[in-house]
Amino acid sequence: MVRILTVVGARPQFIKASAISRCIHERFSSKIRENIVHTGQHYDELLSDVFFQQMQIPAPAYHLQAGSASHGKQTAIMLEGIEEIIQKDEPDVVLVYGDTNSTLAAALAAAKLHVPVAHVEAGLRSYNKKMPEEVNRIVTDHLSSFLFTPTHQGYLNLEREGLKHLHSKPVSPDNPVIINCGDVMYDNVLYFEKLAQKHSTVLADLNLEETPFILCTIHRDFNTDNPQRLKNIVDGLIGVAQTFGIPIILPLHPRTNNTLSKPEFESIFKQIHENKFIKITPPMPYFDILRLLAACSMTITDSGGLQKEAYFLKKPVAIIRAETEWTEIIESGNGWLTDDDPLLLLNACKQGMEFLHGDFPLYYGDGDAAGKILETLTSYLS
Length: 382
Ligand code: UD1
Description:
Blueprint: E1 2-8, H1 11-28, E2 32-38, H2 49-54, E3 62-63, H3 71-89, E4 93-97, H4 101-112, E5 117-120, H5 132-143, E6 146-149, H6 152-160, E7 177-180, H7 184-199, H8 202-205, E8 214-217, H9 221-224, H10 227-244, E9 248-251, H11 254-260, H12 266-274, E10 278-281, H13 286-295, E11 298-301, H14 304-312, E12 317-319, H15 327-331, E13 335-337, H16 342-353, H17 369-381
Parallel strand pairs: 1-2, 1-4, 2-3, 4-5, 5-6, 6-7, 8-9, 8-11, 9-10, 11-12, 12-13
Helix pairs in contact: 1-7, 1-17, 3-4, 4-5, 7-13, 10-16
Bound molecules: uridine-diphosphate-N-acetylglucosamine (UD1).
């Protein structure tokens, strides 16, 4: 029996973890025991509990309630808590996802205790170390014994940093296993799309059944915490709304909401509220987001996850960043980098709204990334 300790803390990690937990339940239950740690990085019900319920993720065995704090403090609280849990739980491997502070804390705690780390979504790079996520990814990759990349580009990025799969044992951070297994988020979209169609009432609730609309999310710190950038993005959204005259649905991340509620953002908040096309909603459950993505004309986002989910559902995307880790989306002609430039955003939307491009190559695996990850872990650790 391989004992996996999975560490999650933020919304995108609950989504990714559900693909692995489901695969353990369906195909590996006699070979693997999984315990989940929830660090508490995301604690709002709409960012956390609703995902555990809807995606049938097993209840966490451990909860750290780290909550919000500065990066150093938040990571330190998690590091201390995860170290204790690893000592108590004695797992064969610590499984981490993506690039959040929860990922970093778990990788550091495990590596120092000489417990192998398995990193799902390894090898991604924005080549912008000002992003906390980029720092978290690089450190986690270099501490991991198992690196599962979602794309071929991710594999190449690791090779460029000197990480090589030599096919020899014992496996360690100095001699890692590196596999391009595809993206667990693609597994999930294939699995949940029909369920979302059946269960989500979001289109009717928002009066969107007969109307073309754009789905938009904004939550990256470099967009939300910089008044000039946020103002530029809002100006861009207003320009798009006025040009196309269709609803822009904006489910608001708590970080963005917190920022917009500050006195210095009052006029920006007012502009959004007074615009008859921009509709702010609370953060949405996964089924509702999938349903909106499947029905929208296009997406505007700075989220890594939503960029790809748009691609999986064959929707064009304007990425409100200067660079992206998911370079395939741009190279295949299905996405545009607009940074915080209102004109670039408007141009991207003009292309997106007249979108006829039918070619979305399968860069993200065959829909069974979770199976490949668990096959690899059981074959090396049993
Ligand atoms: C984190 C991840 C990011 C991921 C994102 C998904 C890091 C460095 N960043 O960003 O990679 O794409 O999650 O959402 O780990 N807040 C609440 N309620 C919550 C959670 C957060 O109000 O449940 C507010 C707090 O004011 C907090 C702020 O949002 O300070 C930011 O939360 P944080 O966990 O630092 O990062 P995210 O922006 O969510």
